[in-house]
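task queued by scheduler; priority normal; single chain, no ligands, no partner chains; default sampling; output format set to structure tokens
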Amino acid sequence: MTETHLIRGARVNGGDATDLIVVDGVIAEAGASLSRAGATVVDADGLVALPGLVDLHTHLREPGYEASETILTGSRAAAAGGFTTVFAMPNTSPVADTAGVVEQELALGEAAGYAHVQPIGAVTVRQKGERLAELGAMASSRARVRVFSDDGFCVFDPLIMRRALEYVKAFDGVVAQHAQDPRLTEGAQMNEGTVSAELGLAGWPAVAEEAIIARDVLLAEHVGSRLHVCHLSTAGSVDIIRWAKKRGVNVTAEVTPHHLLLTEELVRGYDPRFKVNPPLRRDEDVQAVREGLADGTIDIVATDHAPHPDESKSCEWQAAATGMVGLESALRVVQQAVVDTGLLDWNDVARVMSAAPARIGRLERAGTPLVAGAPASLTLYDPRPGRTFTTADLRGRSVNSPYLGRELPGEVRWTFFDGRPTVSDGVLAASMTEVPA
């Protein structure tokens, strides 16, 4: 059955009002004063049209931890936040370290239908850091894995890291490193500094991140491979990445929305919603990562969406799990942190939240410009409203958001995934399996 939508007056990447005609998953026409008989009309006056958002760092928990999230519930959260592609981290049970597991994740995402779920493969077997996983088998599987990470754990052994960087060159893969020296962060509870000393909590020093990044950019340069740095969070890390890029190292880096907005001062209330890894840093670090994103040192924004069941967060600080959900709030937080402050415009947002993550992950049909002939995966976003973020905004299985009760700008009004609306006028589709293909 043919689906046709006429999107009227959308500001593509924040520019002039443009009409888009979507037919069978493709943008058939883009221009002014378009018409199409029988089309469903979408009034996009005042809405910003962005290529469907791409998240290079999502924890969907399935298989194994379905009490926190499933691929279905996580991709529903993604659609609600304007995402049409999410890369699923491998810290599942079993770990996504074989072709069989990544193909299972791919199939579950296809069955859900809300977004493309692209598996990330583990670098090492069971993420133990001892020997390489089946990188080649995952790369040649139906999932076509190109991003490999032990996220949640650092690939700490420099020889293992070197071998991984060498191996992925054969299929243009990339190793995404969780930069955390485990010896320097044993028992760490928050950012190391004045606030941790005042609260009596063990500190997570910035150097534990920066030392690993410095080592790995040199390894990547040595073997001529691609390196991606996950959830960069300190001013020193920005400096190292800036230096490495000037040197010609093939390195990319991401920052999370929460590291663009929140600081360690929030930990003073011992609210476990603010416990995350890497931890919330100083205001100086927040300003540095904002500037790094604005000048291109940091390539992308990635959510590090990390759902947990209530019992893992409704407890004392030291016993609480680390992590925050972030898919539904990401675009709104990015608007508040870097668009409303004048550091980025909407064209930049399209780059850092869609085009660049798709390029790093080597997905050709994601993050493409909204022009005739392109896949019709797009987001219509209203930057005007400002309202309090509540649990009603969450569409996943967990509610461990640091933004509950906080006023955020903007609202995702429509999300189209391959031409089908997963969000229609602010309402999430109840089931994508009932929507005709």
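post-processing summary
- The CA atoms of residues 81 and 328 lie 4 Å apart.
- The mean pLDDT is 97.
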